[in-house]
Amino acid sequence: MSIKRVLLVGGTHGNELMGVYLIKKFERCPELVHRSSFETLTVVGNPRAVEECVRYIDQDLNRSFDLERWQPEGSNNSYENQRAREIRAKFGQDGQLPIDLIIDLHSTTSNVGLMLILDNIDTFTLRLAAHLTSRHPTLRVYSSAGSNRNSDSLRSIAKYKIAIEIGSIAHGTINSKLFQENEAIVQTILDYLEGYNSNAVELEESSLTVYQYVGVIDYPKDDKGEIQAMIHPQLQFEDYKLLNPGKPIFLTFEGEAIAYSGTLAVNPVFIGEAAYMEKGIAMVLTEEKKLRLSPD
Amino acid sequence: MSIKRVLLVGGTHGNELMGVYLIKKFERCPELVHRSSFETLTVVGNPRAVEECVRYIDQDLNRSFDLERWQPEGSNNSYENQRAREIRAKFGQDGQLPIDLIIDLHSTTSNVGLMLILDNIDTFTLRLAAHLTSRHPTLRVYSSAGSNRNSDSLRSIAKYKIAIEIGSIAHGTINSKLFQENEAIVQTILDYLEGYNSNAVELEESSLTVYQYVGVIDYPKDDKGEIQAMIHPQLQFEDYKLLNPGKPIFLTFEGEAIAYSGTLAVNPVFIGEAAYMEKGIAMVLTEEKKLRLSPD
What are φ and ψ of residue A153, in 5° steps? Predict the structure, then answer.
C-alpha cells in the first residue's frame, strides 16, 4: 500500500482561522506541501462560513457527511449539505480525486494544546501518530472511536483520516506561535508519508498513549433548557488531567460547586469548548490508555 | 447631584456571554443589585444576537447610537437600528426611564484582564474609577476619549457611563473565576453609589493611572485586502506593556517579523481582539498617564 493523494483541509468550521490561513499559505506556496511520491491537494471546507467568520451557515459541515442519513439531492438543500455533496463528489472514494489521507485542521477554545484526533485505530494511523509524538513531544493523541466522527465528519470520506486540533484559541483569532507549530506538524506528516512510500520509515516507539473517548458530560440545565452552571475554576483549562469521582466540575452562577458524579476516574478534554455549548456539552470524557504498536 | 437610576447592560454584543449570564443572574435575584437610594435596572442589549451567539445580526449595536448619523424611523431598519431606537426611547435622557449611570458588561479575546473603560474624564467618573482600583487592585483603567465611543455606543445615552471589559475570554464562553470577579466589581460600584448618594464617600487616592487612547494599528494587508500577518508571539497577550519603536508587532504567515514603526513608546491594548479583525484593527494604542484627582 502506498499513499497517492493527500488532502489538507482548513475552515471545515469557518471561525477556526488557524487552519484557514494555513491552507491559504499552502495555496500561495504549493512547493511547501509538494512531495515527490504523492499528490497534495488543499481545500477550504466551508468558504461561506469563513467569509462570515462563523462555525457554519445552516448546519455543522463536520456533521453533514453521514451516509446512512444521506439525503437525496433536493431533499435538504442547506448550504452545508450542498457543500458536503460537492466535497464528496470531488474527493470521496467514488469521486474524481479519491483521497488516501485527509488532514483536517481545527482549533478549539479549550486548552488541548497540540492534539491529534484519530478516528480509526489501524496500524498505519497508529504508526503515523507514534512518529508524530516522537517528533513533537507535546502532541497528545485523542481517539474518537465510538463518537460517530467516523461516519459524519468531512474527513470520513478518505481512506485514512486525522484531524489536528489546537487550543486554546478564541474562535475568530490566530495565534502565531501555535500557527507555526501547526505548520510544523503538517510538514512532519508529509515527510513521514514520503518515507512511508519508499519503505524508509522505522517503528521508533513500541507503544502510544491515547486518550480514548468514553462519553460526554452536559451542562446542568433548568426546566427551560437554560444552563445553570459554568466550568468550575479548578477544572477550567485542565484538559487531559485526571478527574476523580467527587471532584468539582461545575460552579453554578450562584456560586455552588457541583461534583463529578461518575464512578470512574477520567481525563476530560474539550473542557468548555465554545461550539459545544449549543449542544449543551460541557466536556468530552476520555480514558488514558497505552496501545501496543505491532512490529513489522 | 445624586444618582437616581442605574442600568446594568449585558449582551450589547451577543457572543460576550459573561455579561449576559450576569444580567440573567441579577434578573433572577434582583435583591443582589437592589440599593435603597437609587433604582437598578437591567437589560440584555442585543437579545437576538445572544440567541444566535453572534456579535450582532446586521450591524454592531454598540456603533448604532450616533445621534449625528441618526436615521429617521424607516430609513434604516436593520435589527440593531430598531433595537437602538427602542433602548433610547426607554432609557435615553428624553426617554421613559432616563439613566444616570450605565454599566455595560463586555468581554474580549485579548488579555486585558479586568479593565474599566471611561468615555468621559469628569470628576464623578474619575473618583468612581479611583475607588474601584483601590478595592480591585488588578483593575486597569482605559480612557476611550477621542475614539468615538462617546457618540455611538449604547452607554452614550446615559449621563455617566462606564464599561467593564474582561479578558482574555473566547467569545461564546464563560470563565467562572472572571465571572465572579466581574460580579464583585459591579457590587463595589453599586455600594459606592449608595455611599455617594449619602455623601459618605471619601477620596482615598490622589491620582489615577489611566491608559489613554491615542489610535489604532491595522493589520498589514495585500492588494486584495487579505491580512498578511499575525500578532507577533512577543506581543501576543502582552496588553498594557510598554511597546518601544522598532520592536516586533507582527509576524507574516511566511515567518517575517514586522516592527512597530511609530516614534512614540505606547501601551497597546485589545491586542488581536477577534471582533476587530473584520475592521482590520490589530490593536488599540494607549499612553499611560497619571491623572490628578481634584480634592473636594
Answer: -85, 160
Omega of the bond leading into A206 within 30 degrees of 0 (cis):
no
Question: If we measure between CA atoms, which residue out of A170, A182, A27, A174 comes closest to residue A103?
Answer: A182
Select from B170, B176, B272 the Cβ nearest to the Cβ of A171: B170
- pLDDT tens for residues A31-87? 999 999 999 999 999 999 999 999 999 999 999 998 656 556 556 789 999 999 999
pLDDT at B72: 60
Q: Evaluate the CA torsion angle B19, B25, B28, B31 in order and state its sign.
A: negative
Q: Is A236 on the interface with B (CB under 8 A)?
A: yes
Give the tens place of pLDDT for each residue, B287-296.
Answer: 999 999 877 6
8 Å CB contact of A236 and B177: yes
Q: Which residues of B touch A254 (CB under 8 A)?
A: 25, 29
Nearest to A109 among B29, B170, B254 (CB): B170
Collect all residues of chain A within an 8 Å Cβ-Cβ radius of residue B278: 53
Q: Tell me the chain B residues in contact with residue A24 when contact means C-beta distances shorter than 8 Å.
A: 226, 253
Average per-residue pLDDT in chain A? 94
Helices vs strands, H then E, count in chain A: 6, 12
Rounded-to-integer distance, Cα B114 and Cα A20, Å: 31
Please give the pLDDT value at position B195: 97
Q: What pLDDT shows up at residue B68?
A: 59
B62 CB-side CA count, 13 A: 22
Residue pairs spanning A and B at CB distance below 8 A: 87
pLDDT digits (tens, 9 = 90+) for B16-74: 999 999 999 999 999 999 999 999 999 999 999 999 999 999 999 999 998 656 556 55
CB atoms within 10 A of CB B246: 9
Q: What is the DSSP letter of B293?
A: P
pLDDT (tens digit per residue) in A142-161: 999 888 777 899 999 999 99
Looking at the complex, report in whole angstroms how far the Cα of residue B176 sits from the nearest Cα belonging to chain A: 6
Q: In what order do the strands lie in the sheet with A229-231?
A: A229-231, A248-252, A257-259
Global confidence as pTM:
0.95
> Could you say which residues from 99 to 118 on chain B have a Cβ atom under 8 Å away from some Cβ of chain A?
109
Q: Using CA atoms, how far apart are residues A232 and A132, in angstroms rounded to an integer?
A: 33
Q: Which three cell numbers stand for residue B200?
A: 459618605
**B224 in contact with A at a CB cutoff of 8 Å?**
no
Tell the burial category of B83 from Cβ atoms under 10 Å away from its Cβ (0-12, 13-18, 19+): buried
Compute the average pLDDT of residues B178-183: 98
Tell which B residues from 8 to 47 touch A, by Cβ distance under 8 Å.
Answer: 21, 24-25, 29
Spell out the alpha helix ranges (H) of chain A.
17-28, 47-52, 79-91, 123-135, 149-152, 176-197
Closest in A53, A176, A274 to B278, CB measured: A53
Q: Which amino acid is residue B65, in one-letter code?
A: F
Q: What is the ipTM of this complex?
A: 0.94
Chain A contact present for B145, CB below 8 A: no
pLDDT class for A203, splitting at 50, 70, 90?
confident
Using an 8 Å CB-CB cutoff, list chain A residues near B168: 170
Taking the CA of residue A259 and the nearest CA in chain B, the distance in Å comes to 15
